[in-house]
């Protein structure tokens, strides 16, 4: 997995970049190269995640089955990719960090939890791989709480292992998607012909340096003042509602939505009501707690890691837009502290599919939090 990423093809990469882009007879490699229009960054939180969580687990002897994509011939499991739809491994996460594949650390956390989800989905309880997956999950959930709190910003230091892979130093973070550096085009010699026809003035007004990534589309009959993320999955990509997602909803989402510090994060920002017209020029992917609940209701998620990533996206947007002395920023700090504390209480191990109507609410006892 530490080979040069240029060996991987990106011809069949999907829009979300999470599915397989290179499929061999016995091994599937997830996409590790971002599209030029969706270039990410390497941040302080990603550096901590890589150095103090991923590397420690990668070098552990229990992680030997999770370092590279599964080779069905080696492990003699020809039906693996028929059961596991979205393969993931620790080497792929390292490559994605190297290539600036992620936009915030929540996406890397989601990939690691996807890897564990695949382990429990395919391997039977009591097998060696299953038990080692339980050890990795326990260690991982304990270490998640140590990720630096507060804003996420570009990290200047490049890991030594990344330098060996000829990693280009991180570029300054902007509100527009970062793109890989391209070589300058060689100068071309213009033909020595001149037109006798006078040129007309083609001066145009200067365009702003920062263009909004999300446009508020006008709707006939009403004024659209906020961007609402998609809450319904495609029919071909329907998720599920599981025991872990049920506990996540009861113990985290519902409690946070009732708390005082969660009122600012229920819905995506209304730029007119809050008088922040520049919000969607800075925040590219809006998210809210009610949006996550709607996604749970519509079976949008395939595993708990995707829901965790969305909550981390809310916090990322909060710290990115608001100043430290702003009340919303302080509420974001309270939400972050509550989120990491309660996330450790989510059940570990195998995830069980559960019908939403018959979910047992007493499996996860919510706490009353007001501040």
TrEMBL record:
<feature type="compositionally biased region" description="Polar residues">
    <location>
        <begin position="192"/>
        <end position="203"/>
    </location>
</feature>
<feature type="domain" description="Bromo">
    <location>
        <begin position="58"/>
        <end position="130"/>
    </location>
</feature>
<dbReference type="GO" id="GO:0000785">
    <property type="term" value="C:chromatin"/>
</dbReference>
<dbReference type="InterPro" id="IPR018359">
    <property type="entry name" value="Bromodomain_CS"/>
</dbReference>
<keyword id="KW-0103">Bromodomain</keyword>
<dbReference type="InterPro" id="IPR001487">
    <property type="entry name" value="Bromodomain"/>
</dbReference>
<dbReference type="GO" id="GO:0006355">
    <property type="term" value="P:regulation of DNA-templated transcription"/>
</dbReference>
<dbReference type="GO" id="GO:0006338">
    <property type="term" value="P:chromatin remodeling"/>
</dbReference>
<protein>
    <submittedName>
        <fullName>Blast:Homeotic protein female sterile</fullName>
    </submittedName>
</protein>
<dbReference type="GO" id="GO:0005634">
    <property type="term" value="C:nucleus"/>
</dbReference>
<feature type="region of interest" description="Disordered">
    <location>
        <begin position="172"/>
        <end position="207"/>
    </location>
</feature>
<dbReference type="Pfam" id="PF00439">
    <property type="entry name" value="Bromodomain"/>
</dbReference>
<feature type="compositionally biased region" description="Pro residues">
    <location>
        <begin position="178"/>
        <end position="187"/>
    </location>
</feature>
<dbReference type="InterPro" id="IPR050935">
    <property type="entry name" value="Bromo_chromatin_reader"/>
</dbReference>
<dbReference type="InterPro" id="IPR036427">
    <property type="entry name" value="Bromodomain-like_sf"/>
</dbReference>
<feature type="domain" description="Bromo">
    <location>
        <begin position="257"/>
        <end position="329"/>
    </location>
</feature>
